[in-house]
Amino acid sequence: MLFRNCAGGVVFFDDKVLLLKNEKDQWVLPKGVIRDRNLSRDVALARVKEETGVEAEIISCVGETCYEFFSMSRQKPVCNEITWYLMRALEDEYQLNEALEFKEIGFFDMDEALNMITHNQDKSLVNLSYKKYKAMFVEEMMV
Predict the structure, then answer these.
(1) Predicted confidence pLDDT, tens digits, the chain (143 residues)
(2) Looking at the domain that runs over 2-142, which CATH code has it been given?
(3) Rounded to whole angstroms, how far apart are CA atoms 66 and 77?
């Protein structure tokens, strides 16, 4: 089995979360593999920017998820362990990166997003992250 360390972002703008639809028609969060001794936080910010065009800032770490799948191209199982960061977008502008085979992108209201997200552990992660985000920025969101 191939083990990969990854990093990604749960990105909010106001009361909405950023999601991508990948080539498998799954709604996911931006993430990528950590390479060349890069720091996980740097990889997370870079992948958010590369995959979505969104400039974001890290607020805090919100945990890790792990999942396994069979890679057809490598012909072996892969285990991705992802460190996730709670992020705030500096603006609500985004850009779809079709070169990375993403089909759709957007900031979505929480109820809609939780219904769209494909993987249950991502739903839990987004829900937990939103609670933390709201607790930190509740005054700003009420203005």
Answers:
(1) 889 899 999 999 999 999 999 999 999 999 999 999 999 999 999 999 999 999 999 999 999 999 888 888 888 999 999 999 999 999 999 999 989 999 999 999 999 999 999 999 999 999 999 999 999 876 565 55
(2) 3.90.79.10
(3) 13
- How many whole angstroms separate alpha carbon 22 and alpha carbon 5? 20
Nearest alpha-carbon partner for 11 in 45, 50, 39: 45
Say if CB 8 and CB 30 are below 8 A apart: yes
In contact, 119 and 26? CB cutoff 8 Å: yes
The SS3 assignment for 73 reads: coil
- Calpha distance 64→6 (Å, rounded): 10
Q: Is residue 130 within 8 Å of 17, Cβ to Cβ?
A: yes
